[in-house]
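User: Fold this; tokens only.

Assistant: Input:
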Amino acid sequence: MKSGANILHLGLDVHKETIAVAIASGEGPVRRYGEIPGHLQAVDTLIKKLQKPGEELRFCYEAGPCGFVLCRHLRRKGFLCEVVAPSLIPKKAGDRIKTNARDAEQLARLFRAGELTAVRVPDETDEAIRDLIRGRLSAVFDQRRARQRLKGFLLRLGFRYPGKTSWTPAHMNYLSKLKMPHPAQQIVLEENIGAIQSAGERLERLTTQVHGQLTDWKWEPVVRALMCLRGVSVINAMTLVAEIGAIDRFNHPRQLMGFLGLVPSEHSSGSKRHQGAITKAGNGAARRALVEAAHQYRIPPRISPTLRQRQHGQSESVRQIAWKAQQRLHARHRRLSARKKKAVVVVTALARELCGFVWAIAKSVPNPIQSNATQPGAKIYVLNPRLKFKSAADRKPASS
């Protein structure tokens, strides 16, 4: 920014069809500009009208269904643009009027004051990998719902599978031999079986594609290092990296725990202190991956052949962190279980501590973003120093 330049803070309330614009200049009042169409050409026209010599434009808008397309477009043009977390925008308790124009005014005012919390904007490749992983997760949920639907249908008609494990070849053979009391119900049975098979095939295709995308991804070294941990296979490791991004941007593992919503909620007043369940304020997919991995630490520490193969080629420091994780988490599982804690509480506590080991391993692997930033021609965006970047650990969990 040139010295003495007048800064215009623009708050954008972005929707599918329209964008409400408000402008905060200097110390004066915030003025409404109006609404423009919701496409990029209209934003370029807005910039041409507002950009004047000696003035700098800065943009912000809330994270939402329109994604990061507008932010990337403005950054490619050299403007500072931030996507802010909607849940962390300060709001007045007595404010009961909400319109697009008011939202844009509030964004511009708080952006000028530096009271907004920005979210991480992934690049196109990272977002594509994240979309693929989320698509696979949706396929998992679809398969689960299809299976539950069929089981509920058979239970209502009095059919109970005598075996121990469902959805094995023996179970599918049992389902194929069932004969319903009425032809219409037989059609429902066959359609449900077909839906389960289709969901399974879709899940298998997406899983194969996820494995195939790892080779050319810049975060592959971090993913391979995280796979040294017990319970963290390719899918879980890629989920953590795709959802969190640069894990080493957190200065302390407690910040990462808070970011993922694994810290306990709290409601304290005066001398009374009450802690409740975890906040669940962060990324649900990454938190789910850690909880799934935490189940494996009920087993005594051991380097299985599969785990040894995943650790092949990794540094000694990474392997030592992974081994320490097995010892520490298994010992904690035994202590908590001996105190008659609920299984879900024990697993959640293990997932929170596992988060710290994930942070330690990520810190020991070189960050590919910092490496690329040193290459000629790489762009480094200098963010507004007044803009606040907070993690969930820096605020009260109950407020999230």
